[in-house]
């Protein structure tokens, strides 16, 4: 990190935090603090919704995912625009009519207190865990790459967020998210421009995309379906459009961190427009981020990539008896790269001459060397695991940040780090704000202290925001590395979202099912989802469908049973 | 829940979208955009596979 990078990073973060605190100072009641006095315009809501969903993991993991697996992750978002329309049509008018602070309040008017409390608790558990990961994910990567202390990095992100979220509540979250989105998208577009600029002179943008295609990275949509295997495939069109729809319905319709964003709208129209804005722009945004990852992949076809992107973890092996084995693998990696570079240049020439025979031959040669390189990389990962058993052997989260640190000029490194910090802060602030409002409105105000004045609940909201922030920092500090980070967050979400969505769908559309039945059905459905997670290989996106459908089916069966019993008792 | 209701919320359900005569137009815009993106992505997949 050079001085200019520090100035850009600290200047950007300092400005956003100060602006957030100054602009939203003086919330005097709970209405202003938790709902922003219903003053938000649609573009603020739309940007706030997008910034809440786009955590630092989005910017660290997604390009790495594209590097490894191509563009197909974008299919995960295909259900999102449909969910935005459904929520705009059905959910928003109901929430506005009932004038709720949280989504779970509605469940008490429809069912009963225990169902409201169950849904609120499921949300608090999954969102409380996710808030820790939202801080931990960038902190572990930044601390590894930059050599910073992990606890200090966790504290820096957590404390900055706590300052303005405690101070200004919902309005501070939304106001700062506008600046954070500008930093995030601006920084990513500049990074995308730079990676294309760094390609060799004889390789045009079109050539780069063609090379990516020939190497299997432009696999954006996959319509194929196999009854044997597709259930276990995380990203295809069908899982994206169905599982993604259910996940989006649950996330945007029932997760308070998103519901709070549009409940702060000036009117139903502003809230709807904010959601539809997200429905229009989310997929293109994800496409751009993935495409930057693919361009980083092409860049590394002409510039030697590290054998293992988490170089700090790799370098630890040199202090063990396995150092010579690693050196041998590094030599093989360098040798294969030299061959591959030549083969890829041959592929570019073949593509430029449009000679199909030459293209096929060059493609086969590149594929052969790529496979050999993969074997060397796998051997290196196995060696790292053997030499340092605690090491994480997935390095996709380090692909993009490693490129940024090694190749971008002074100033831009600071800007890209500001992107990652901004993303971490934007999603964490929404989470803390939502955790606090659910704790205060659905638990504390409803079941603990019912008759206090507005100032008391305002103070309680601030205290709970700070408390959840502190818990998130503690969880982040003690969390261990989880699989791929973006997937970890989505898996945790999917385990709980299906059940919560099922409760809400029953509430909205299945009037036959009443409070007792839906409560028992939700508990059974959650048990089914947990069984699927721990004892089957079903892809996590399907948990959303399974949990939701299970609540509805169990609800119908239990309600039928309760009605039968009632009839029998009445007859007796 | 809140005890009072502001004027803006009272008229909320009758708010019109800014770009179309009704909300249906907005919804079709979002769904049409999704269909367009899927077709575009499928075309990209076919061209570059």
TrEMBL record, chain A:
Membrane-spanning intervals of the chain? 6-22, 42-62, 74-96, 117-139, 145-169, 181-199, 235-254, 275-300, 398-421, 463-482, 488-510, 517-536, 542-562
Concerning CDD domains, the annotation shows:
SLC5sbd_NIS-like_u2
Q: Which domain of life is it from?
A: Bacteria
Quick one: a GO cellular component term? plasma membrane
Q: Which keywords does this Swiss-Prot/TrEMBL entry list?
A: Cell membrane, Ion transport, Membrane, Sodium, Sodium transport, Transmembrane, Transmembrane helix, Transport
Primary location recorded for the protein, binned into one broad class: membrane
Pfam families recorded for this chain?
Answer: SSF
Coiled-coil segments: none
Q: Where is this protein localized, as stated in its record?
A: Cell membrane
Q: Which GO terms describe its molecular function?
A: symporter activity
InterPro entries in the record, alphabetically?
Answer: Na/Glc_symporter_sf (IPR038377), Na/solute_symporter (IPR001734), Sodium:Solute_Symporter_SSF (IPR051163)
Q: How does it sit in the membrane?
A: Multi-pass membrane protein
Q: Name one GO biological process term.
A: sodium ion transport
Q: Which family does it belong to?
A: Belongs to the sodium:solute symporter (SSF) (TC 2.A.21) family.
Q: What is this protein called?
A: Transporter, SSS family
Native organism: Pontibacter indicus
Q: In the record, what lineage is assigned to the organism producing the protein?
A: Bacteria, Pseudomonadati, Bacteroidota, Cytophagia, Cytophagales
UniProtKB/TrEMBL annotation, chain B:
For this entry, the protein name equals Uncharacterized protein
| Residue spans crossing the bilayer | 25-44
Q: Which UniProt keywords apply?
A: Membrane, Transmembrane, Transmembrane helix
Organism lineage reads as:
Bacteria, Pseudomonadati, Bacteroidota, Cytophagia, Cytophagales
Domain of life, source organism? Bacteria
């Amino acid at each position: 990190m050079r001085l200019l990078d520090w100035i850009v990073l600290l200047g950007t973060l300092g400005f956003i935090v100060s602006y957030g605190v100054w602009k939203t100072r003086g919330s005097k009641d709970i209405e202003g603090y938790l709902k922003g006095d219903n003053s938000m315009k649609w573009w603020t809501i739309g940007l706030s919704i997008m910034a809440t969903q786009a955590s630092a993991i989005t910017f660290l993991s997604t390009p790495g995912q594209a590097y490894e697996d191509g563009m197909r992750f974008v299919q995960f978002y295909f259900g999102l625009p449909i969910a935005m329309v459904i929520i705009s049509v059905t959910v928003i008018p109901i929430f506005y009519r009932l004038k709720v602070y949280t989504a779970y309040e509605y469940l008490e008017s429809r069912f009963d207190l225990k169902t409201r409390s169950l849904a609120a608790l499921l949300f608090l558990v999954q969102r409380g865990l996710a808030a820790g990961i939202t801080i931990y994910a960038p902190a572990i990567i930044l601390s590894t790459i930059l050599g910073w202390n992990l606890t200090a990095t966790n504290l820096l992100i957590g404390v900055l967020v706590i300052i303005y979220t405690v101070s200004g509540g919902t309005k501070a979250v939304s106001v700062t998210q506008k600046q954070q989105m500008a930093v995030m998208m601006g920084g990513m577009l500049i990074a995308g421009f730079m990676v294309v600029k760094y390609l060799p002179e004889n390789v045009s943008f079109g050539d780069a995309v063609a090379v990516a295609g020939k190497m299997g990275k432009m696999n954006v949509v996959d319509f194929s379906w196999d009854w044997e295997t597709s259930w276990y495939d995380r990203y295809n069109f069908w899982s994206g459009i169905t599982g993604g729809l259910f996940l989006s319905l649950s996330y945007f319709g029932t997760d308070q961190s998103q519901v709070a964003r549009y409940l702060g709208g000036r009117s139903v129209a502003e809230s709807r427009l904010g959601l539809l804005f997200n429905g229009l722009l989310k997929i293109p945004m994800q496409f751009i981020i993935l495409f930057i990852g693919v361009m980083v992949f092409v860049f590394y076809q002409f510039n030697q990539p590290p054998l293992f992107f988490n170089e700090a973890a790799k370098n630890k092996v040199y202090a063990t008896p396995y150092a010579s084995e690693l050196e041998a693998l590094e030599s093989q990696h360098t040798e294969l790269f030299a061959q591959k570079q030549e083969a890829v240049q041959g592929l570019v020439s073949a593509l430029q001459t449009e000679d199909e025979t030459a293209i096929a031959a060059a493609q086969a040669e590149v594929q052969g060397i790529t496979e050999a390189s993969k074997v060397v990389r796998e051997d290196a990962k196995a060696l790292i695991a053997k030499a340092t058993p605690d090491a994480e052997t997935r390095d996709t989260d380090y692909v993009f940040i490693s490129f940024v640190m090694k190749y971008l000029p002074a100033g831009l490194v600071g800007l890209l780090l500001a992107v990652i910090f901004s993303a971490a802060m934007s999603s964490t602030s929404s989470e803390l704000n939502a955790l606090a409002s659910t704790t205060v409105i659905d638990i504390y105000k409803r079941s603990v202290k019912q008759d206090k004045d507005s100032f008391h609940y305002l103070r309680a909201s601030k205290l709970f925001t700070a408390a959840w922030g502190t818990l998130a920092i503690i969880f982040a500090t003690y969390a261990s590395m989880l699989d791929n980070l973006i997937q970890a967050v989505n898996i945790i979400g999917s385990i709980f979202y299906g059940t919560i969505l099922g409760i809400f769908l029953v509430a909205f559309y299945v009037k036959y099912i009443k409070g007792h039945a839906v409560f028992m059905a939700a508990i059974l459905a959650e048990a089914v989802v947990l069984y699927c997670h721990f004892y089957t290989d079903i892809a996590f996106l399907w948990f959303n469908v399974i949990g939701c459908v299970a609540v509805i089916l169990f609800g119908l069966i239990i309600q039928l049973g309760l009605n039968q019993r009632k009839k029998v008792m009445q007859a007796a | 829940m809140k005890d009072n209701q502001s004027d803006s919320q009272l008229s909320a359900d009758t708010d019109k979208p800014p770009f179309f005569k009704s909300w249906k137009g907005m919804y079709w815009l979002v769904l049409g955009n999704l269909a367009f993106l899927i077709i575009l992505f499928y075309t990209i997949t076919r061209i570059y596979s």
